[in-house]
Amino acid sequence: MDRNQATGLILFAAVILVYSIFFTSPPEPQLQEPTGEVISSVQGNPTENITQEVEEVDSLQDLKAQIQYGVFASLVKGNESEVTLENDKMIVTFSTKGAEIKQVELKEYKTWDQRPLILMDNESSDLSYQINTTKGSLSLNEFYFTANTSTSQVDGESVPTIEFTAQTSSGKITRSYSLPNESYVLTKKLALDGLTSQLVDSNINIIWDAKLLRQEEDIEESRRKTNINFYKSSEKYDYLSQSKDETSEQVSEPLKWVSYSQRFFTSGIIAGNQFNSGSLEQVTPQDTLSVKNMKSTLALPLENGKAELSYYFGPNNYKVLKKITPGFENNVDMGYFFVSWVNKYIIVNLFHFLEKFFSNYGIIIIIIVFIIKLALFPLTYKSYVGMAKMRVIKPEIDELKEKYKDDPTKQQQEQMKLFGQLGVSPISGCLPMLLQMPFLFAMFFFFPNSIEMRQESFLWAHDLSTYDSFIKLPFTIPFYGSHVSLFTLLMTVSQIAYTHFNNQLTAAQGPMKNLGYIMPIGFMFILNSYPAALSFYYFVSNMVTFGQQALIKLFVDDKKIREKVDASKVKNANKKKSKFQQKLEDAMKAAESNKKKK
After folding, report:
1. DSSP at 159
2. Within a 10 A sphere around the Cβ of 490, how many other Cβ atoms?
3. Are 226 and 212 in contact (CB under 8 A)?
4. If DSSP codes are grouped into helix, strand and coil, which group holds residue 345?
5. Residue 144's beta-bridge partner residues?
6. Which is it for strands 125-133 and 265-275: parallel, antiparallel or unpaired?
């Protein structure tokens, strides 16, 4: 045996020796006859081992919770259950895990397909309150609370209240909610007693992430009317852009409230005092699972560890919203400033007054048309007389056009002179009509946003708040749609008939005559997908106006108007030009002079 072989043999023996000492198992015990004592020992060991393992796991979880949550560690263990608050308007469901709103159901309303109307639930909405502690940012939604229901007296009324309490070794967290009867407002109080030393700042961050549930059949119209509105403490209302699919805004100044406003319903959060700042974001999804996706992050200040706020979950009823908090009525779009006053101070009050006597909203619309037309009748009469004057002096105007057909400036000057002599104003027929325009435009905003029309039927229209699909088309017409709205069709025919009658009264010629026929066709395309209530209002309005003018025609004699015009001509024969007429003529001459120089 050489040296290498001897060395290998020694190493091999050493490996076997080390293995036998450290890695081999002890000899198995000899099998014995089973006895009761042995059986007892064998059965008891697994239970003790499992118990020991569970205790070790619990200890590890407790240690981990202690490291992560500090004094709040005891609050992350518990059992979840549901508690509800209910009045005659809504049912609010809470979870003891987080003591937060889990679901809100409005009892008076249904979705377009007659399902319960849920404004928010735990699957579509996440409402989280986060505190900044020495252990980092912690969400109250992770803590388990104990619920206690009671009633409290508010202005002599018993108000149902739920108080959620989470007790720690250092203090407690209390979240209490109250829901008065006949109210859409849920009030909330939050208190951190004995725990302020655990906070690194005096703000609690509210993060409200929501996918707004679809409530109406026409999702495109719903999306056009859905956006985030907010009201600054400086009493300035604002909103995110409705025209963009994705938009956001950082608001550094204090806010009073933020709302997720849909076409007919609003969910809002209102500060007891103010939110110090806010981050707002809205996105229009590509699918139809939600109307829009909203997210708000609000900084709510704590005063001595306490804060108050409230929620609004309810309809976009102007009179209801106006009572909630300053500026909250802006969640109902009443139109631009020059027409909104008509809706706010006339139409809304008129509607609510008529609702006391009539339950059919088609009848209410007809009555409103008659009331408005009656109030505006003096303007309609003046407009008709003004057009009649222009009609009777048409021969003189045609004569001037022929005489000065090669000199437009001179033609206009002579026409102005003729109008002054005859006592006729070319705008006398148009001005009264312009004064009626705010009412026509006001309805364009009122009916599409009026919750009073929602799911109210009239004649063949099953829902006045959406289009009346009289005929379904097997194809889609661009800018028109895949259906035919009969009320819109009737409105178009009535407008064309009114235009024809009006052209006869004014003896209109040229482009203005044709324009009167083109506009109704254009509106037919625009209003085909608008609410049936709007088209029906315009249809009734056209018919009433047509009737008014036919009635006025019976009492206005063109011969008498001609006699008045001739009398004015004699009276004004030697009358000096007014300053306005002189300035107008000078301006026309100056314009013509500049034109020739060029």
Report:
1. E
2. 17
3. yes
4. helix
5. 97
6. unpaired
Q: What is the mean pLDDT of each run of 10 residues along the chain (598 residues)?
A: 50 53 46 42 48 50 73 87 93 94 95 93 92 88 92 78 91 93 94 87 92 90 91 90 83 94 95 93 90 94 92 94 93 86 90 90 94 87 77 76 74 72 66 76 88 90 88 84 89 85 62 70 87 92 86 78 71 59 61 60
Structure tokens, 324 = 């909630």
Please state the φ and ψ torsions of residue 514, each to the nearest 5 degrees: -75, -35
Distance CA 559, CA 28 (A): 133
Which tokens go with 200? 């690194």
Which own/partner contact pairs does 472-480 have at CB distance under 8 Å and 24+ positions apart?
479/525, 480/525, 480/528
Tokens of 441: 């435009």
Q: What is the C-alpha R_g of the chain?
A: 39
- pTM for the full predicted model: 0.77
- The rounded distance, in Å, linking the Cα atoms of 174 and 164 is 6
User: What letter represents residue 238's amino acid?
Assistant: D
Token duo for residue 199: 């906070």
d(CA 84, CA 94): 6
Beta-carbon contacts of residue 48 (< 8 Å; ≥ 6 apart): none
Query: Quick one: angle between helices 511-527 and 486-506, nearest 10?
Result: 170
Comparing CA positions, the residue from 262, 224, 263, 230 lying closest to residue 245 is 224
Helix (H, G, I), strand (E, B) or coil at 580: helix
Residue type present at position 503: N
3-state secondary structure of 97: strand
DSSP label of 376: T
155: left (phi over 0), alpha (psi -120 to 50) or beta: left
How many residues does this entry show for the chain? Answer: 598
The 3-state DSSP class for residue 273 equals: strand
CA proximity to 260, closest of 123, 121, 119, 129:
119
Q: How far is CA 455 from the centre of its chain?
A: 18
What does residue 257 show for φ and ψ, rounded to 5 degrees? -155, 160
Structure tokens, 359: 């339950």
